[in-house]
Write a structure and sequence with these properties.
21% of the residues lie in helices and 26% in strands. By secondary structure, the chain is an alpha/beta fold.
Length: 137
C-alpha cells in the first residue's frame, strides 16, 4: 500500500514495500509524487529507491524504517548515498529511533527519539524563509 498525504504546504509519501517496478509504475502515471517527507521504500533495500524515483519525489527529509542489526543488512549503502546526494535529510530508525512528525498546513516538525548525532534531530520543514532586510539611505 502506498499513501500520499497532502496538508497545506506539506506532504508525506508512505511508499510501503514497493520496489523499482512499483516506483517506475508510479512515475509513469505522472501523478504528483513530490513529498516534503518520504518513508523510504522497502526498508532501503537495493531493489528500491531508484534515482528516477528519488528525483520525482524530491524529499526534503527521508526516513528509513529498519531494525538495528537486521538480518537483511538494510539499508543498502548505495541507497543511503542516493538520498544524501539528493540533499535529503536522512533519518534511520535503527540509529535514530522513533521518528515523530507533527504537521500543520504550513510546516512539519520532525523529531527523533535517539541522539545519534549529539542531539536528537529536530527539523522544521519547509525551513522558514530567510528574513529580508532593506537598507534605506
Amino acid at each position: 500500500m502506498v499513501l500520499r498525504f497532502s496538508f497545506g504546504n506539506v506532504s508525506l509519501l508512505f511508499s510501503g514495500d514497493i520496489e523499482s517496478a512499483g516506483e517506475r509504475a508510479m512515475i509513469e502515471r505522472r501523478g504528483d509524487l513530490h513529498a516534503t517527507m518520504l518513508k523510504v521504500p522497502h526498508h532501503g533495500s537495493a531493489s528500491s529507491s531508484t534515482p528516477a524515483f528519488i528525483a520525482a519525489v524530491h524529499p526534503q527529509a527521508a526516513v528509513i524504517s529498519d531494525g538495528y542489526l537486521n538480518n537483511f543488512h538494510f539499508p543498502a549503502a548505495a541507497v543511503v548515498e542516493r538520498y544524501v546526494d539528493a540533499g535529503a535529510i536522512l533519518m534511520r530508525t535503527d540509529l535514530d529511533g522513533a521518528v515523530m512528525v507533527d504537521a500543520t498546513p504550513d510546516r512539519m516538525t520532525v523529531r527523533t527519539f535517539r541522539a545519534r548525532r549529539g542531539n536528537p534531530i529536530h527539523l522544521v520543514l519547509p525551513p522558514p524563509p530567510p528574513v529580508r532586510t532593506t537598507e534605506h539611505e
